[in-house]
Amino acid sequence: MNAAKEKLVVIGNGMAGISTVEQILKLTTKFDITVFGSEPHPNYNRIMLSYVLEGSKTIDDIVLNDLQWYEDNGIKLHMGTAVSRIDEQSKEVVTEQGMRVPYDKVLIATGSNSFILPIPGSDKEGVVGFRDIADCNQMLEAAKNYRKAAVIGGGLLGLEAAKGLVQLGMDVTVVHLMEDLMERQLDHQAASMLKAELERQGIKFKMGAQTSELLGDTRVSGLRFADDTVLEAEFVVMAVGIKPNVAVARESGIAVNRGIIVNDYMQTSMEGVYSVGECTEHRGICYGLVAPLFEQGSILAKHICGVDIAPYEGSVMSTKLKISGVDVFSTGVFIDGPEHTVISNKDDWKRTYKKILLQDGIIVGAVLFGDIDDANELQKLVKNKAEMTDELYASLMGTGCSGGGKKTAAVETMPDEEIVCGCNGVTKGTIVDVITNQGLTTVDEIKACTGATRSCGGCKPVVEQILQYVLGDGFTAAAKQGICGCTTLSRDEIVAEIQEKGLQTTKEVMNVLGWSQPEGCSKCRPALNYYLGMLHPDTHEDEKPSRFVNERMAANIQKDGTYTVVPRMYGGVTTPEELKRIADVSLKYDVKVVKVTGGQRLDLIGVKKEDLPKVWEELDMPSGYAYAKSLRTVKTCVGSQFCRFGTQDSMGMGAILERKFERLDFPAKFKMAVNGCPRNCAESCTKDIGIVGNDGGWEIFVGGNGGIKARLADPLCKVKTDDELIEIVGAIMQYYRESGNYLERTSEWVERIGLDAIKANVVDDHENRKALMERIEFALQQVEDPWKKMLNDTEHREKLYNRLEMSNQL
């Protein structure tokens, strides 16, 4: 180490400590920095663990600072190394292994631990918390071997754990002591709406229940409650709260209460030792949210670097979260009393709710559910104790004239120190600075430079507004982005050039249109291949190297290298003969799991790559396209054939639609559902196209999504005949194929194109509808089943399934 530099030792490699280090590195190079982390991982975003659990992200995806970052900044990192104490006499930090590291200053950022209820049985096997990657891995492993899980605690962590376990296929019940979920952040109305939404996603609830004992011998088998009722559970997640991790401070003789006691500059009772984050207690408060820890870290960084800074006076408590795809927000006072004036709006169709509380005309708190666009503005208004005015009311409640200036005005008055990206602690001032001084003009550039939008993406709209505010009139031109970094051309420009110049291959497109990377990248190659196939369905030869690996292999690769095979079951209907073949093939080829999917099909999970062609041949069923940007499933209820409530033949119509439109490429995966009556048993409201039968015919919905970005489908039109239904469905599909961006789901497409435009093109304009239908019929004539095609192509079958996979992976 350079003796001329001060030695800074950071105890804790989490978000609070490393965020502080990042701030220090921006201000000075006077420190030699050593970081100790008890986990065997670099700094990662703990907020994103739920995404890892549900499978939408990997551990690598949530790493905030990789090992190269530590090396590039000269930071010595000790992973998997816990610190036991600070020796004030020798001015050394001592690890549990006996290592001693000298210091001039120490930052304690040890975070918090899961609070495990002190009840009988809490030490049994199968009982875990939910705080770190190790907990996440235990939950992933448990889902492979057990069916029934209980999550104790209806706060954020508990709900995220529950959603992840449901996504992994477990039967999950959330047990909560109170009658409302997230009672520390939401009022009764918002909590009720959240519970209803999570029940739709498959989570069960036992409210007002006090757990008195965990049952079982060595391993947990259930929960006993105070009223002596019992809930069966083979796996239990404790998510009842957190407690500050003060072990190092206590062992070192530093003053602690609930947390490590600090002053307004984050200094502890020991000279030269500071503390930030969840382990810290400031003015009697321990903060468990991410925004305060970034505020603390920013003030501490400036203080120890010798920069004049106002003291930390505490944080205005606010919560902005995405829980299982649902946005919620609260700030200040959110439970109304007789002293409050309540302004509220609830929309059952859009599933949104807004409540603003006033006291003597001053805005003192707010709750938002479903739509949180006004969250930043409301947080600022509460913090500044703003008075409600007619103009402000019109702006917040949407009763005034609409205009593009409202949000820009909101970011204009936002203070520079206000945190925009809560996941990564990026302030407005930081974003303005990189736009102004580094010439950044796009959100992607800001993300790469500052980390804003890097994690959950919830702050992207505000980042865009800041970009527009700073660039002013230059925003539109400067913010123009191509489909990837290889080109500045947009999707529409590329499609127009392909048509005008008659381009036929991806290499032609890249060469003629001046790609900066001659071979393209993993974003543009699949997109170009799709656009070429959509424009030239009869002449374009599909380019397998431009396909993602699942599409090339016509099966979904799993993390162990085996594959999942999903045969087509039209409308979710099969036969005893097909079921017998599935069973025989599964036994013969040692299929690990046969899973019933949400789309009413059977997944054959664990097929070896070399066995894929033989499995397809012996199944003798069409490909279900579970791997493709194509029509996946048409989910149905039993309809009028069997149900006493059914008014239309949903199974029959589902099978017709699936047979007609299977195998055709779309911009993204595509799902449909057909209900035989408005009871919605097939869940049409969350599908790309949803169809609901009634006594007079059919009602068509478009743009639904049941995934991470959940969205209810919009009602498009009503039709009387089956023929009209099929024609409009085909026209919607083709309009989406021709105008959708590659990888853009219909939920995003509908919001971008607009429902009125879709109605005008596929419902009102009969001639255009027929033209769209003719084009999709022509495209359908060119497709064939990929499994049968591969079985008849000996050369490609040998290349793909009996040799090593092509190295040009996407």
UniProtKB/TrEMBL annotation:
It comes from Paenibacillus apis. Belongs to the nitrite and sulfite reductase 4Fe-4S domain family. CDD domains: NirB_Fer2_BFD-like_1, NirB_Fer2_BFD-like_2. This is Nitrite reductase [NAD(P)H]. Residues 7-280 form the FAD/NAD(P)-binding domain. Pfam families: Fer2_BFD, NIR_SIR, NIR_SIR_ferr, Pyr_redox_2, Rubredoxin_C. PROSITE patterns: NIR_SIR (PS00365). Residues 318-385 form the NADH-rubredoxin oxidoreductase C-terminal domain. Residues 558-620 form the Nitrite/Sulfite reductase ferredoxin-like domain. One of its GO terms (molecular function) is 4 iron, 4 sulfur cluster binding. One of its GO terms (biological process) is nitrate assimilation. Siroheme binds at residue 681. Residues 419-468, 483-532 form the BFD-like [2Fe-2S]-binding domain. Keywords: 2Fe-2S, 4Fe-4S, FAD, Flavoprotein, Heme, Iron, Iron-sulfur, Metal-binding, Nitrate assimilation, Oxidoreductase. The keyword Translocase does not apply.
